[in-house]
Amino acid sequence: MEKIFEKDLHQWLEHVRIYANNGKVADYIPALANQQPEINAVAYYPIGDEVMKAGQFEYTFTLQSISKVLTLALALVQHGEKAVFSRVGKEPSSDPFYSVAKLEVNTPAKPFNPMINAGALAVTNMIRGRDSEEMVEEILKLVRLLTDDPSITYDEEVAKSEFETAFLNRALCYFMKQHGIITGSVEELLDVYTKQCAININVQKLARIAAVFANDGRDPDTNNPLIPLHVARICKTFMVTCGMYDASGTFAINVGIPAKSGVSGAIMGVLKKNGGIAVFGPALDKKGNSVVGMQLLEKLAEEKRWSMF
Ligand code: DON
């Protein structure tokens, strides 16, 4: 495992930017379809050192599925492992992230893991709060803590756009409600979920979140505990087994670090005891992962021997 320098980030981005042509910006959430496929950025946040960045690093995008790691951490802190895993499983599904298929073939209709949409919806359903507004505040509080940025909030347009078109996610919710996996109002749950997915961030802040996981749940600058060690460990394990959806196996072979992607085109990666990396490029491959992000992380693994295996 070799040291990473800012010049590496510039070089890698320069080398992989062309791959954006091989992907397509997500358009099933109408507000995401406006993203420019040629935009890209990368940031590396070493534990106890200065952040390094390249590309359009000030560009902001939404967390989308990356938020699932954070709501999982929050639910585990609030309710403990036993309660959380009574509602969601621990196994990879090998299905696309939006799939409904496995809910029907298993009894009880417990989603396979917290990284697919069904599992993430079940986890968000557990977040404490008297109403959706308080639940969203709880999630924002955690993201603000991990990014050390009290101004973090969600993009109302993206949240609204997803809320108005999330028919498949509603279907997953109603299915799980029928089977007692989720409780309460599906519309309120969708309100929270679409807002958590629409949380606005840039690569520097996202790399800081990854650095907290790299530092076993501790602040990468002050070393203060932010997430309990065992919770950080569970989250990282899910990132390895399910973080890149049905491409997680290939990613583990080609890159070999805990990582989580989102359909906005972001990926966060965890370099154990070293730091966090975040890549953004909105053009996606068929499985919903950023093509530029995947290529850049492959370069990192190849050139710096960063696979954990
Ligand atoms: O629920 C959805 O479909 C989106 N808000 C998030 C999906 C996602 O990011 C999958 N990622 N690759």
From the structure above, extract its key features.
309 residues; alpha+beta; Beta-lactamase; Probable Glutaminase Ybgj, Chain: A, domain 2; 2 domains; 5-stranded antiparallel beta sheet; two-stranded antiparallel ribbon; 12 helices; 45% helix; globular; binds 6-diazenyl-5-OXO-L-norleucine; hydrolase; glutaminase activity; Glutaminase; EC 3.5.1.2
For the termini, the CA-CA separation is: 11 Å
Could you list the spans in which at least 5 consecutive residues all have pLDDT below 50?
none
Coarse morphology: globular
Mean pLDDT comes to: 96
Q: Give me the secondary-structure category.
A: alpha+beta
The CATH homology group name of the largest domain: DD-peptidase/beta-lactamase superfamily
What is the helix content? Answer: 40-55%
**Quaternary structure type:** single chain
Task: Report the CATH topology name of the largest domain.
Answer: Beta-lactamase
Strand arrangement within the widest β-sheet reads 3-2-8-7-6
- Associated small molecules: 6-diazenyl-5-OXO-L-norleucine
Query: Which radius of gyration do the C-alpha atoms yield?
Result: 18 Å
The CATH architecture of the largest domain can be given as 3-Layer(aba) Sandwich
The number of helices is: 12
Protein name: Glutaminase
Catalytic activity: L-glutamine + H2O = L-glutamate + NH4(+)
Keywords: Acetylation, Hydrolase
Binding site for substrate: 65, 117, 162, 169, 193, 245, 263
